[in-house]
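Here's what a typical entry looks like (Class I SAM-dependent methyltransferase):
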Amino acid sequence: MPHSVSSPDPLGHALLAFHRGTDSAATLTVHSNVAEDEPLPASYFFRSLWEMPELERLALEECRGRVLDLGAGAGCHTLELQQRGFAVKAVDVSEGAVHVMQARGVQEVARHELFAVPAEAGGYDTLLMLMNGLGLVGTLDGLERFLKYAHTLLAPGGQILATSSDISYLYEDEEGALVFDLNGPYYGEVEYTMSYEQETGAAFSWLFADASILQDYAEAAGYDVEFLAEDEQQQYLVRLTVRN
């Protein structure tokens, strides 16, 4: 396994440092255009089943058949599914994350951009997108594109299990009224960068889709939509099933 990871990959370097024990407190700093900088401990990517939020545990229960874990990080969901006997492929764009997953025993792992994941004969029965994983699509345009693209990855009747959040609360004034520019971009399109130690990664877009806009886009793209659960942080778990 290569010992070096091409830069910049702050996420991958933080995960590797934590996994190898060279920095047991490895913590990323997440910078965004909507909120203060936030710390993100690498340890969070290594959580066990009982450290996972309820929405994630429910998503794992709802998986079926051949699973594709998109944005798999350090592989905590893939490893749990493997233990349950599922055939799972884990995908992440971070080279360091891929090395960590290989070292942790993920049986099938590959480094791909979201829109470069190769289709597989027979397709996947479940696409898994956890940790606000729907955000990988970046923007509403990206969501529309992804929902079409996912048809090429899914088996007939296949499902997408994804979490996302409504972040409109960030735009409330003191009276609780929402204040955002209706002529600007959709309020759930956020720009992020991540840094670890002296390394800062490239900026990337992340989508937080409110439930009604997701339902509109998914139904237009040929999916049945079922909201399975919601937590106190306005995060929800949704199942999108290819309409036969």
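The chain has a mean pLDDT of 93.

More examples are in the samples folder.
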